[in-house]
Automatic annotation (TrEMBL):
Source organism (scientific name): Tistrella mobilis
Alphabetic keyword roster: Cell membrane, Membrane, Transmembrane, Transmembrane helix
GO molecular-function terms, A-Z: branched-chain amino acid transmembrane transporter activity
GO cellular-component term (any): plasma membrane
Localization terms from the record: Cell membrane
Coiled-coil residue windows: none
Lineage of producing organism: Bacteria, Pseudomonadati, Pseudomonadota, Alphaproteobacteria, Geminicoccales
Positions of transmembrane segments: 7-24, 36-53, 84-108
Name this polypeptide is given: Branched-chain amino acid ABC transporter permease
Topology in membrane: Multi-pass membrane protein
Domain of life assignment: Bacteria
Predominant location category: membrane
Amino acid sequence: MRTLRHDLIYMAVFTLVILTMPLWMQPFGAAYPDLLQRFAIYGILAIGFNVLFGMTGYLSFGHAAFLGVGSYAAMWSFKLLTMSAIPALIFGVLVSGIFAAVIGFISLRRSGIYFSILT
C-alpha cells in the first residue's frame, strides 16, 4: 500500500511538471514543443523497452530499428508523397508495425542471445 501511495505522488508531481512545462520553458523560445515531442517519443520507446527487457528479460536491439524505420517511413511519405502530417504518421506506424511483425515472427521461438542477435 505504501508503494502505491508513493507511485501516485510521483505520478502527480510528474504530471504537474509536464503540464507546467510550457510556462517555465518559454525562455527557450519556439523550441519547447519540439523538445516535448522528443520527450514523448523517447518515453514511449523506453516504456516499450522496459516491457520487453525489464519484465521478460529478453534484450532486444530492434527497438531503435523499429523507431528508425517508422520515422523514416513517416518523413518519406510526408516529404515525397506530400501527405499531411496525420496520414504520414499513420503510414509510419503501419510500416514500422509490419517490419516489427516480420522480425517478431522470425525471432518468436528464440531465446537468450539468439533472440538478441535476431532483433
